[in-house]
Amino acid sequence: MKIIEEKILREGKIINNDIIKVDSFLNHQIDVPLIHEFAQEVREWMAGRRVDKILTIEASGIAIAYAVAEQLGAIPLVFAKKSKSATVDDNVYKSTIKSFTRNVESEVTVAKPYLKEGERILIVDDFLAEGNAAFGLINICNQAKARVLGLAAVVEKRFQGGRERLEKEGYDVFAGASIKEFKDNVPIFY
Amino acid sequence: MKIIEEKILREGKIINNDIIKVDSFLNHQIDVPLIHEFAQEVREWMAGRRVDKILTIEASGIAIAYAVAEQLGAIPLVFAKKSKSATVDDNVYKSTIKSFTRNVESEVTVAKPYLKEGERILIVDDFLAEGNAAFGLINICNQAKARVLGLAAVVEKRFQGGRERLEKEGYDVFAGASIKEFKDNVPIFY
User: How far apart are CA B9 and CA B116, in angstroms?
Assistant: First the structure.
């Protein structure tokens, strides 16, 4: 999507040659028309397929997930919670996710009543890098015997392999903008 | 709003006689049509007044803030971040908020570029209880010399005084559902 690529070029800040900060429109301040257009593209991408529920992770995924859920017929969305310590609540599905940007492991949980056997789930997130968050959520869906259709992310850093890993396992992937590489501190898109 | 009151009666779980858990439609799973209708009501409430930006706190406020921002003309939204420790970044506005439900203090931050002098801000949140989160965000807006118009919350526990405190200081308050009290473990609405 041209609109996202232009926004990244104009406002993204590359850090360490593999992290790009987009706080001005995605991770702190949110550009509503941009997210709305992304959600419409996801709807076209999913045309003809039934989606029962959107799954994301707090916090940056939530606005995007809401926009997509609205476009797909006002279906429910669930956001996995990041818990600080091992949760004792046994009424949750848990998974451990390694954060690429911060190099820490965190446990995420979804309460069992909000994922049901047979539900058709679309995962939505702000970024797709190595795919660790996506696989953490897939793991949770597997525990619930829900079916993951695929993942839609606003920005994909394709050189980090997340898409490959997901597609290899049979999941569909959609990205609003696909970064091929950072060259001389400038993102190059596919 | 009838739809929210009914949802609370059907799905809310009262804990300790002053906390109500609404994870099934607001704080973990999100009921999109309900939030959409709330956002439309906020638009009517704000009719004729200019709002430049929506401000909320991660994580539960974000979906609601997005829906309201969309209704008010696709204006930007900003979510304050909860930081674990004292942030050294001096390019942020900070405020300390005492959480009613968890009885802990947490620091929230907004990066300075995302709140500007003179901007007309509407605060949006899931709950209004004692008003601590609202006043923390107002404090941040004051640092930025932005102007807070008021607060819109999906659920208000009016017996905890948040509305009174806010109105006394001249802020407008809108709630999707106003709980007067919990009586025999059932919420009574205004």
Answer: 40
